[in-house]
Write a structure and sequence with these properties.
The chain has 476 residues and is an alpha+beta fold. Helix content is 36%, strand content 28%. β12 and β13 form a beta hairpin. The mean pLDDT is 95.
Length: 476
């Protein structure tokens, strides 16, 4: 039986945890800080993988796999990288009953091991660009964890590339950010802002970090994906050199980029409501659930025949689930599938068969319950699913716009971040000390400088300098 979900207005964090557990997306593991992804949650991740893997391959990337264990000396080679990850590293010191000569780090990310291999594989300009992706798990020993959003072990993909020129690396990093934004908006139905991270928030070892930032239902920001230009930092640290067309040795310019199971958390918090999940049709494991309404045994045969006929006609086009479980009331099933976020419910009972129709009910609640002729069912399902997909993105964009304000002074920025949830935009002149001050006073961070903004005005933190348009917010 579905237990009560804490209303999001009372306790958003508890609402989030309730939904994950009751919709059977994930559960807590006996190892503190880790989680078990249950089949329904993993099927969402498979949807993410399926779409992105195709986009990566369409843009020339190949999948590979690199070891989970990385020599500690590799991590030490890039100074900013080791400093950034040191508190989160899990280290193996003993194996096979013996102390290891060199400790092994359980990968927090794979730049170091991959660049060690790149130093062996890249020798000539003909070897470039090298475009590699891997689907893997990583470990970052987090102090405060939350299912899907921040766990000590999580699943992700990480792309790693090497290029002849800085411009090629920039094009690559921007291209991958665009693919992440495309996925978030067109597949997950979540509006995102594309931007560049400040020096304080940049990936350890990168020269530029791009990100997509999304607003959740509680108005906090979520960093949903990142893409990094690494310059020549890692190629020099790992002595990756190639001979160019003039037979001279050069260091390649590199990128790395990744998204993780955090995207599932994004979908929950951007679309869910007090009934449970709302899943975008393009990602939902089941797009349609068909529920036969059987008031008595005498109706069972005719109703199930109609259900099976409908299923046979649509199953090649849509992901359909038939809920013919006995000894459960239709109301119980309605609540359960609403909790699981299935976009469209179809009901069929004796009276519907008589009229040659079925009853449609959308998870987003638009239109209430309404009848659809069985002869039109294929076309109508497609139309409804398309409408739901578009509506989810529209709702997400509207939510973001309605909860974003612009300020013109540092005082207004601080007051807005303390008193109002949501995004606050302003013109900001890069200054790490000023940024730390804002964070200390308000608990908010500079999420990014807007990537597509070319405007510059006098900054709120330095009246003598112009600033770039920036977004501040409290965040996950």
């Amino acid at each position: 039986m579905v237990e009560k979900i804490t209303p999001m207005s009372e306790d958003f964090n508890q609402w989030y945890t309730d939904i994950i557990q009751q919709a059977k997306l994930a559960d807590y593991s006996p190892v503190k800080g880790t989680m078990v992804i249950r089949p329904y949650g993993y099927s969402l991740w498979e949807g993410v993988q399926s779409y992105l893997d195709k986009r990566f391959k369409d843009t020339g990337h190949e999948n590979a796999y690199f070891p989970l264990f990385i020599p500690n000396s590799f991590i030490q080679k890039e100074a900013e990288h080791v400093e950034g990850f040191a508190p989160e590293l899990a280290t193996v010191t003993h194996a096979g009953g013996k102390e290891l000569e060199e400790p092994l780090v359980v990968r927090p990310t794979s730049e170091t091991i991959i660049n060690h291999m790149f130093s062996k594989w890249i020798k000539s300009h003909r070897d470039l660009p090298m475009l590699i992706n891997q689907w893997a798990n990583v470990v970052r020993w987090e102090m405060r964890t939350r299912l899907f959003l921040r766990t000590s072990e999580f699943l992700w993909q990480e792309g790693h590339t090497a290029h002849k020129t800085e411009n090629e690396a920039t094009i690559e990093a921007r291209q991958m950010l665009d693919i992440y934004a495309e996925f978030a908006e067109n597949i997950a139905g979540v509006s995102v802002i594309k931007g560049i991270k400040s020096a304080n928030e940049r990936f350890a070892g990168a020269v530029t970090t791009y990100s997509i930032e999304a607003m959740m239902k509680d108005m906090k920001a979520l960093q949903a994906g990142t893409s990094h230009e690494l310059g020549q930092n890692f190629s020099k640290a790992f002595d990756i050199q190639y001979t160019d067309e003039n037979n001279e040795l050069q260091f390649p310019f590199q990128t790395s980029w990744g998204v993780s199971t955090r995207l599932i958390g994004m979908i929950i918090m951007a679309h869910g409501d007090n009934k449970g999940l709302q899943l975008p049709p393009k990602l939902a494991p089941s797009q349609v659930v068909v529920i036969p309404i059987i008031p008595s045994d005498e109706h069972k045969s005719s109703i199930m025949n109609s259900v099976n006929e409908i299923n046979d006609s649509v199953k090649s086009k849509f992901r359909v689930k038939i809920d013919d479980r006995e000894n459960l009331s239709p109301g119980f099933k309605f609540n359960e599938w609403e909790l699981k976020g299935v976009p469209l419910r179809i009901e069929i009972g004796p009276k519907d068969i008589e009229k040659g129709s079925v009853v449609f009910s959308r998870r987003d609640g638009i239109g209430g319950k309404y009848s659809v002729p069985i002869s039109d069912i294929d076309k109508t399902i497609q139309t409804v699913l398309d409408e739901i997909q578009v509506n989810m993105l529209h709702s997400s964009k509207q939510h973001q716009e309605e909860n974003t304000i612009h300020v013109s002074s540092k005082k207004e920025l601080i007051e807005a971040l303390i008193s109002n949830p949501g995004f606050v935009t302003c013109y900001w002149n890069e200054d790490s000390d000023d940024e730390n001050e804002i964070k200390e006073i308000t608990k908010a961070t500079l999420r990014c400088y807007l990537l597509d903004s070319t405007e510059s005005e006098i900054s709120v933190n330095n009246s003598n300098e112009k600033g770039k348009l920036a977004v501040f917010s409290k965040a996950y």
